[in-house]
Amino acid sequence: QVQLVESGGGLVQAGGSLRLSCAASGSILSMNAMGWYRQAPGKQRELVATLTNGGSTNYAESLKGRFTISRRSAKNTVYLQMNSLKPEDTAVYYCNAAGVVLTSSPRNRRDYWGQGTQVTVSA
Q1: If you average pLDDT over residues 44-59, what whole number do you get?
Q2: How far is residue 63 CA from its own chain's centroid?
Q3: 15: buried, middle or exposed (CB in 10 Å: 19+, 13-18, 0-12)?
Q4: Does 26 score more than 80 pLDDT?
Q5: Element containing residue 45 per DSSP (H, E)
Q6: Contact call for residues 83 and 72 (beta carbons, < 8 A)
């Protein structure tokens, strides 16, 4: 099995910064990408940013320039640096590992999700 453990969420004032971390553990042989999604109250889960093994990034258009995704591949860890935070960034942020192949099942791929970390931005 795979576990994704997120950390770094919390309460911050508008204009402040937070850095989220997500560490994937388990018998992982490989994965295609890691990323972040968020879900605000009453809204659907939406893409924040993803980062592939090849280094390609994909950001939600509205977040470009404020959020930066990075990764320590050797440790299956992904980070999200969030700057100039706004109240509308308030949400539960979920880590995602996409296309994960386990050593025990090398022919199968699946995605995994973390439990989420709350980010609250006060006005």
Answers
A1: 96
A2: 14
A3: exposed
A4: yes
A5: none
A6: no
